[in-house]
Amino acid sequence: MRLSLAILFCFGLATPSFAEGPEIVDVNVEKASMGWRFEVTIEHPDTGWDHYADGWEVLDSEGTQLGLRVLHHPHVDEQPFTRSLSSVTVPDGTRTVYVRARCSIDGWNGEPVAVPLPF
Asked: Which residues of 55-75 are buried (b: 16+ CB within 10 A; e: fewer)?
């Protein structure tokens, strides 16, 4: 019986722990001279190059990608962190866009966050 418990304990330690996906904490949007500028704040338990938040995107209501911000490195010691994307073209008449984040392991996370455009 002790051996079985020891084996189960060892396997329990060897199973991967699943980190939370990236969370959109805040989005600031402003109309710029060349399209829209988005500042997105993300929180994610980055562990290093093996698992980190690696991007976010802006979508229209149909799910069409309007902009993509690729994050090229982990932010282990900078949480939450904010990155911007400029010159995003949003179709005329659009009142709300959606932002979602992804990580290098789990891909796109959860439901996109609705972001009303300031007019």
From this structure: bbbbbeeeeeebbebebeebb
Query: In this structure, are residues 82 and 88 in contact, taking their beta carbons and an 8 Å threshold?
Result: no
Q: The whole model's pTM is what?
A: 0.80
| CATH number of the domain residue 73 falls in | 2.60.40.10
Q: How far apart are CA 70 and CA 65, in angstroms?
A: 13
Task: Give the tens place of pLDDT for each residue, 34-54.
Answer: 899 999 999 998 888 999 888
Residue 81 structural domain: 19-116
Q: How confident is the model at residue 116 (pLDDT cuts 50, 70, 90)?
A: very high
